[in-house]
Amino acid sequence: MKSTGYPRLRVSSSATAAVGQAGGVLLTETVRATGLDRTLSTGLARWRKATAVHDPGKVVADLAIALALGGDALADVAVLRGESGLYGSVASDPTVSRTIAALAADAPAALRAIDTARAAARARAWHLAGGHAPDHDASVGNPLVIDLDATLVTAHSEKENAAPTFKRGFGFHPLAAFVDHGAAGTGEPLAIMLRKGNAGSNTAADHITVVRDALAQLPGHHGRTRGSKKILIRTDGAGGTKALLEWLTPQRLAYSVGFTLPENTPDLLARIPERVWAPALDAHDQVRDGAWVAELTDLMDLTAWPAGMRVIVRKERPHPGAQLRFEDVDGMRITAFVTNTPAGQLADLELRHRRRARCEDRIRIAKDTGLRNLPLKAFAQNQIWCAIVALAGDLLAWMGMLALTDHQARRWEPKRLRLRLFTIPAVIARTGRRTWLRLNQRAPWASLTAQAITTLRARAAPT
Questions:
Q1: How far apart are CA 268 and CA 262, in angstroms?
Q2: Average pLDDT in the 413-423 region?
Q3: Using one digit for the tens of pLDDT, what is the confidence trace for 181-211?
Q4: Is residue 433 part of a domain?
Q5: Do 417 and 67 contact (CB within 8 A), yes or no?
Q6: Residues 131 and 222: beta-carbon distance below 8 Å
Q7: Residue 219: which CATH number?
Q8: Which of 374, 408, 439 is the last residue of a domain?
């Protein structure tokens, strides 16, 4: 029989200095650099019993790290427990469950405490990042972008508040907000609002709540960053409600929101001269063949809508093989959005709005770090879980922003990070009074990981 080419090894289980998930030290060093460990410990101190061995803040941080490494259940924290040389003392499964239950018993207060800790750590992370922070040089012309989007999470068993969804599934319909890092990186989850499966897609009150929660996560949101339209709220047509736009306008927030055109759209489009249509741009800022943009503001009665709202429409030849839709006009696919940005080329504003598609990537990252499956039965417990999911996303984004700024790895999503960085093999060596983590130099990205760890340690928050 021909050999397969793979070595045939004798396998045994024994004590060894080798460690798994050695690259996860990138996450623990990110926790240390941002001071997240201390802010969580302080914020959750009221939930620590007098005789408790484990700090609730450390338990929450450990769960977030476990999700970043690929876990999707409370029990997956065992991966960290098995590597105490890397992750310290990790609570047992019963202790973790009791901690989550205790936090869920007073969920509003616990969620506020976790969010406050996240906001403080985010402020330090953005300060350390300097020119690589998403709010660096934010201006009216180059605003900080917050994307809103909802997604469906399937429930495979009876869970509190799980309900039928509009896609005929069963589960939950969370609404999330992410700050966009642009082409340089991925993005940070600012807020994840867990909702019933039958929650409406265009519920203005939910959108307003999520925007408020997102703004509270921004460094200096009561001063430098907020106001003067240096923050852009971007969402699809689900957010295109009069109530949301009326709330955003006095907040002095810029917006770019999908918009449903009226029934007389074909008549409106017919009134636009051909010479007025400007060529649209593709994702690379180049002219997109077969796509044009124009403004409809002066052709519509917008007296009932907020002042300063502009309606911009795009027409495009459908891709080959695409079926026409009911709302298509003269064989053209028609889409529209509204914005209160008063200046700028229409093509640039329309491209800025279409880049909201990056939010789909952020949703995918969140689902890769625990949002795909809500593992707990009680709704309040799953709310705590969503906060931990957001925390895991923060750690991944801060890690890239602080330590991988000069490498394409800053844009890597969790699946690639786990394959290339987090699972690097290593051994722990003790010499004298020092403990060394020796990464296997044969691993292709070992040097990148070592350099990133060194960078993070140089930025560690003072004790």
A1: 9
A2: 95
A3: 988 888 999 999 999 999 998 899 999 999 9
A4: yes
A5: no
A6: no
A7: 3.90.350.10
A8: 374
